[in-house]
Amino acid sequence: MESKRRLLTKDIVLTALAAALLSAGKQALASIPNVEVVTLLIMLYAACFKPQIAFAATAVFIVIECFIWGIHTWVIAYLIHWNFVAFATFMLARIFKIKNRFVYFGFTILVTASFGVLTTAIDSLVAAGRGKNFAKVFALVYVRGIYYYVIHVVGNAVFNITLFAPMRALLNKLMIKYYGKDIFLKEEDAASPLPKTAGTPSVELTENAESDKIITSVDEQGNAKGVDADKTERY
């Protein structure tokens, strides 16, 4: 029970720290339009932390942003986008166990570009009312903001290709120290070979052992025949 409480405490502390870093990183670069480290951090959390910690930290970050900026259409985009980034990265890193940095580089470009499309679509739906002029409004809004979308993609691509792989390796080592073990290590008892018991001969024989066995068998047969021959001669 005590070990479970200690583990839960560590999870809560790590979640709070992760959420704080997301908010701090977002505010630190707020003065530079569309340059952010939130994408990089959430991907690292999903790749290195327990999934519940990554999703909880992302949720806390969104709530903090609501307190700072108020409730608007961007909240919908945040809920969809950041949770998708966390889920997709977890699938790539922990389910499919992909380590190639260029896979995450390509994923970062695609998911960052989709953020501009998502936010534009949500704003266009609201601006177009019932959607009668959605296509026209979407084109106008997207073209107007395409300069910032390009900056967003380039910034995240640079952060990912330079920082994701080394920071992922560092965080994995820190997680082992923090928890005292690898939290993602799965022991496959069924696949492990059974231990040999005392007095049980090995099934596998080397070539020399097999040859010795054959020679010994032949000698024993020869000795047996010799004894029978002696008995025949005596009688």
What does this structure look like?
This protein has 235 residues and is mostly helical. The protein folds into two domains: 2-179, Orthogonal Bundle (Arp2/3 complex 21 kDa subunit ARPC3), CATH 1.10.1760; 205-235. The protein is built from seven helices and no strands. The protein has helices at residues 2-28, 38-48, 51-69, 74-95, 101-127, 134-179, 207-234. The longest helix is centred in the middle third of the chain and has 46 residues, at 134-179. It is globular, with a radius of gyration of 32 Å. The chain starts with a helix and ends with a helix.
What is the secondary structure topology, with strand pairs?
Blueprint: H1 2-28, H2 38-48, H3 51-69, H4 74-95, H5 101-127, H6 134-179, H7 207-234
Helix pairs in contact: 1-2, 1-3, 2-3, 2-4, 2-6, 3-4, 4-5, 5-6
Unreliable stretches: 187-211, 213-235
Describe the sheet with the most strands.
Answer: none
Overall pLDDT confidence? 84
Q: Tell me the number of strands.
A: 0
The amount of beta strand, in percent, is under 5%
Highest-level CATH class of the largest domain = Mainly Alpha
Count of helices? 7
What is the rounded distance between the termini?
A: 83 Å
Q: Helix proportion of residues, in percent?
A: over 70%
CATH topology of the largest domain: Arp2/3 complex 21 kDa subunit ARPC3
- Tell the overall outline: globular
What is the structural class? mainly alpha
Number of domain modules = 2
